# Entry
Amino acid sequence: MTFRPGQHVGPYVIEGLLGSGGMASVWRAWDEKRSQQVAIKIMADPLSDEEQLAGRFMDEVKRHKRLSHPNIVALREVFSVAGQPCMVMDLARGGSLAALLDACPERRLPFERALPIMSGVLAALDHAHRQGMVHRDVKPSNVLLDGTRTHALLSDFGIALAAGEKRRTRAGLPVGTSAYMSPEQIRASREIDYRSDVYSAGCVLYEMLTGRPPFVAEGPQSVDDNAARAAVLAMHLRDTPLAPRRRAPSVPAHVSALILRALEKDAGRRIPGCAEFARLLAAPPERFARGTWRRPARVGAIAAIAAIVAVAVIGAMVVASGA
# Structure
């Protein structure tokens, strides 16, 4: 089942489609009871009979219910239509961060404008982490904005992982969006924790300030989707990202250094948590003495191991995608 404009669903009048993906679609609706617009997420038709994916949708509902924070999209109600679950959420009038970047010259934001948005994202992630939850899909399209386009609202906990929760994704295969995935996500590690979201947030901030994610497939690799994805995943495992300040000289030096620290391959070398990431971003530049946030030297053995793992993981993914 799908909605149509003008359709009445309980107290809601469907107005139009906001967006759709493989697992669900999101519609704008008018709430006649509260006299306000809302967003309604309904599971896509083809998935209704697929137990695993239907389970993921209901997992998202359960996770979202546990989270109440000013920087997380509020979940208002859950109901079913013809057996398909629906989530009613507050409508983010400013659209997504991805749309905001697309509308900006060179897809960049000045640091002064990016800071309040990223601070909100980090606050939302810190709250989720304190509830024992890792988002695992932090990216610009999952960061929504209010009408001022300065206040961030984190959304889409569809592949989040809560402590003690049974995984519904296939064992040994990574989940997430390639441009923003941490090395441990790519390796499908069983030890993914909050530091994975630190890495993904670093990727998002890198893109906000430079106009592109840290790693992008270029040349012949960019023509084929599978090859491009495999190339980007291998870069996350193997390559050192170019400093943001080298791509965009307007990025403050201390911010550039902090982003690189968030993007460490070794989770133990990253900024220790999203709250600390936010605190450091907001700190005065003079607090960062020369060399304070210099990236630790990369140990050759670690790089070699990462390269070996990259070959194995990417090969498995290409085989899986072609199956």
